[in-house]
Amino acid sequence: MKQLLTTLLFLLTTGYAAAQQGLAINELFSGNIIPKERMVETRIRGRMLTDYKMSLFRSLKCKVSKEELDKINALVHQDIASYKTTEYLADERHKRSTTLMVQLAKKGKTYCYICQKVETEGKEWVVTLIYIESTVKTLSELRKMFNNK
Question: Quick one: which of 133, 22, 121 has its CA closest to 62?
Answer without folding.
Answer: 121
